[in-house]
Amino acid sequence: MARPNITAVDVGRRRLLVLHVRNGPDGLVVRHLLDAPIPTRVDPTDAAALGGWVGKAMAEAGVPRNGVLLALGREHLSLKVLDLPTSEADELPDMVRLAVRRDLPIDADTAAIDFVEIVRRDRATSVLAAAAPLPVVQFARTLAEAAGIRLGGIGVRCLGTAALLAAMDLPEGPYLCIDLTGEGVEFTLVDRGVAVFSRGVALRADPGDLQATADAVVTEMRRTWLAYGAAPAGPGAPTVERAPSTPEEPGPDRVNETAPTLRRAVVLGETRLASRVAPIIADIVGAPAEIISRHPRVRGGDAPLDGAWPLAGMLLAPASARVDLAHPRQAPDLAARRRKSVIAAAAVVVLSALLAYTFGAQQKRREIDRHDDIVAKARNAKPEAMRFRRDELKVRHLETWALTQSDWLDRFASVQRLLPEPGSAVLDTLSGRQETAPVRWSANTGWSVDAESRIVLEGEARTRRLADEFRQRLVDRGGGTVTTSGSDARGGSRLPFAFGYTVKSAVRATAPSSDAGTTEAPPASAGSSADSNGPSSGESDSDGDDESAASAEEGGAE
To answer: 3-class SS at 253?
Structure first.
């Protein structure tokens, strides 16, 4: 996973350049850009003194110093595209070291060597190898330690330039990039996102003299183009020789003998200097020259990024495609893997036995203590638990009995609504009674109680048909049985036909299940289910005509 905030640092002999960005899905967002001259009192060859000043400058600028990527200029190392006769990734590190010892003027035993894969085929792999002398790498490490920097890697400036062009989605190259952002000039030929040729030169002109600096850049451009004189091959082309070089000025890596056909030249650097040299460079290489002032994947702050484009390219490149001389790729030690596996297995066995014995003894002691503690708690809590159990069963008993209570006012009102129209019938008696059986407990159903309610209606009707229709409405209402308790003959005191009906309803109420009421029978000491039923019936009586119905409802007992 990419780090959300990353920093690249380029420490030269005259100035310090720091770029701190936030790495988002759309590219880099610049958070800090520090471009400061190195004071004359600081010796640029003293890594500790220079690092102390760099750390102080970064702290004052508010730039984090975690996971910093240091940049090395092209003049400090050698680069070469190598074709290796293998497609096994584990074989590449050793083969790269052998090829570096054979093809580059550097001692592979005293150098830090890293590489990135370019193309892998069935039986061959093309890689870009970078080699730097150990003193150069050690100088960077000492500087980072003195600056309080947690080193994330040591990269190469010109490879950052190649990554910057690769992220621009340009047409197929090759492209020649002229980097004027450092204290010298670097020429990098990029083909399909790979730096297939590069050369770095320190400029001796006064940095304050713009025209002298431009003349020096043009001179080095002519030297580079004449010294190279051959087209760098793309990935997979043979690498045969190296152009002449001197200790002060390493020469470029020569790749093949075909003259290059450039797509365009790209100039990076301060606008005034770049605008002076761009037309002349275009004439030299025979291709258009473009000055990079912005990038689609880099969003800058208020300060221009003219001097930070190579650093931005280094941060744009994914870690897997980045040369890191601080952590070079190493061939796997297969024998060490086997040794480590055997030692680890033996250690695991011994450690497991010791841990098992220790854990078993501790667990046994804990279980004994836990058992004793639980027994003591149970003995102390048993009387309280039994009391709570008895109280809970009593409450459940009373709650179950209370479920059978009826709303007599509502029931009387529902019966009254069934009477014939006023004047056609007179209601003499409206009474209700409920008989409740003892509350029972069952393992299957829990607490339950049976109850029967009766509503007695007596009165007189103007005709027998009206009395019968009233009875039929009681039957149709449902919820119980209707029986006739009086005579059907004439003989009413106010209206001709007397009637008497009894409505009986039986109900079984079951209390909701609970742990206390359904899983265990109540103990005998938890109250008597026969004697603790409370009232077993409720009754309500009312005598009078229709005008007294309201008072009868108010006097009903549940």
So the answer is: strand
Instruction: Please state, in angstroms and rounded to a whole number, the distance separating the CA atoms of residues 481 and 504.
Output: 5
Instruction: Report helix, strand or coil for 205.
Output: coil
Residue 275 in tokens:
């605008």
Secondary structure element (H or E) that encloses residue 177, with its range: strand 175-179
For residues 187 and 103, the answer to whether their CB atoms sit within 8 Å is: no
Whole-angstrom CA distances from 439 to 59, 391, 436, 444, 450 are 83, 16, 8, 15, 8
Q: What is the pLDDT of residues 59-81, one digit of tens each?
A: 999 999 998 999 999 888 899 89
The backbone torsions φ and ψ at residue 334, rounded to the nearest 5 degrees and listed phi first, read -65, -40
pLDDT tens per residue, range 144-153: 999 999 999 9
Residue carrying structure tokens 């093309």 = 126
The Cα angle at residue 463 between residues 459 and 468, in degrees rounded to 5:
70
E strand map for 136-262: 150-156, 175-179, 184-191, 194-202, 241-242, 253-254
At 551 the pLDDT is: 32
Strands 440-442 and 264-268: unpaired
490 DSSP β-pair partners: 497
- Indicate the pTM of the whole model: 0.58
